[in-house]
Write a structure and sequence with these properties.
It is a single chain. By secondary structure, the protein is an alpha/beta fold. It has one domain: Vaccinia Virus protein VP39 (Rossmann fold, 3-Layer(aba) Sandwich). About 40% of the residues lie in helices and about 15% in strands. It has ten helices and eight strands. Strands 1, 2, 3, 4, 5, 6, 7 and 8 form an eight-stranded mixed β-sheet that branches.
């Protein structure tokens, strides 16, 4: 079966909806309808999507500047300006990146559009975050990344699509356990910690009805994912506040919806 034949355009997909919010062109009617419904309920969501993308750029640059030359980006999303390999290879052209996503259309576009510096390596594999062993055993990963050298693991706005708390914690633990000393985990995750009781009630109603597929989690829960890791400054903060490059008054603020961002190092 070809990748194209497995693309169900009638069902919204997070990567395509995210692309829609970012102003891209790789989405379908179901993605637009889903994105518009969420935006009506939480108007800040488009700004937050862009803030999350900006955190990706800052965190990858930070990791590259600390000496990380290998990246495992799970939940890649559709190509957009400043992809992981572009940021990392600007710091060091020999940087290696493995992209992972479970949407065939993402992989088709990634292979076609995301060509890295020939002095480095860029690989793409189609796999599901819920099966970390399949990711870790995939030939594309094993052929691209050196298991003895530190890796920057990127789980950006992806874990909240796993709704089972125990499964989510187990996935993070399995992935982090596979990393050598000196590796980093960069993570962003949806939360309702910044919301009002009315906002939380509206979110829970929308989630129960299937209007959003984001399972918001608390700061305390996200902190547990970093058990055994050294969280770097400034800690677990709103996505726009992680080592920002702009002024505070220019950042999106909302009591309806939020995203945490955090980076931790494995000793």
């Amino acid at each position: 079966m070809s990748a194209h034949s497995r693309i169900d355009t009638s069902v919204p997909h997070p990567a395509r909806r995210y692309n829609y919010w970012l102003g891209g062109k790789d989405h379908f009617e179901a993605d637009r309808q889903s994105g518009d419904a969420i935006e009506r309920a939480f108007p800040i969501v488009v700004e937050l999507a862009r803030a999350n993308r900006a955190f990706m750029r800052r965190s990858v640059k930070f990791l590259a500047d600390t000496g990380i030359r290998q990246f495992l980006d799970i939940g890649t999303g559709l190509p957009a300006p400043d992809n992981t390999h572009e940021i990392a290879q600007r710091v060091d052209p020999s940087s290696r990146v493995v992209y992972v996503d479970n949407d065939p259309i993402v992989m088709v576009h990634a292979r076609a559009l995301m060509q890295g510096d020939p002095r480095g390596r860029t690989a793409y594999l189609e796999a599901d975050l819920r099966d970390p062993d399949a990711i870790l055993a995939h030939p594309a990963l094993r052929d691209t990344l050196d298991p003895e050298q530190p890796v920057g693991l990127l789980l950006l706005a992806i874990l909240h699509f796993l709704h089972d708390d125990e499964q989510t914690a187990a996935v993070v633990r399995r992935l982090v356990d596979s990393l050598p000393s000196g590796s980093y985990l960069a993570l962003s995750h949806g939360t309702m910690d910044f919301s009002t009781p009315e906002g939380v009630a509206a979110y829970e109603k929308m989630f129960a009805a299937g209007g959003t597929d984001v399972r918001a989690r608390s700061k305390a829960t996200i902190d547990e994912y970093f058990d055994g890791l050294e969280i770097v400054d400034p800690g677990i903060v709103a996505v726009s506040d992680w080592r920002p490059e702009d002024r505070a008054e220019e950042r999106p603020v909302s009591t309806d919806l939020g995203i945490y961002a955090v980076v931790g190092r494995k000793a």
